[in-house]
Amino acid sequence: MEITISDEKLKETLKEVLIELLQENRIELISVLSESIEDFIMGESIEEGLKTKVVSKEEIMKELK
Fold it and tell me: Can you list the residues of the chain whose pLDDT is less than 50?
């Protein structure tokens, strides 16, 4: 037995399912997105840091005083 569904009906059904998932799992989604953004920013920071000059701990402490 084969079931067929129109493209428009499939699109509408997928939208409804996604909306329901987002509404029911809002906290989990926010947590996942937040972690993903943090990971991305950390990776960007590491890449930027690899392009800069290395300084000693003493030089950092001197600038902080």
Answer: none
* C-alpha closest to that of 29 among 18, 13, 15, 42: 18
29 touches 22 (CB < 8 A): yes
Can you tell me the distance from the alpha carbon of 34 to that of 37, in angstroms, rounded to the nearest whole number?
5
Long-range contacts from 31-34, C-beta under 8 angstroms, 24+ separation: none
* Type of residue at 37: I
- Both structure tokens of 11: 């699109």
Gyration radius of the chain's alpha carbons: 24
pTM exceeding 0.85: no
Distance of CA 23 to the CA centre of its chain: 18
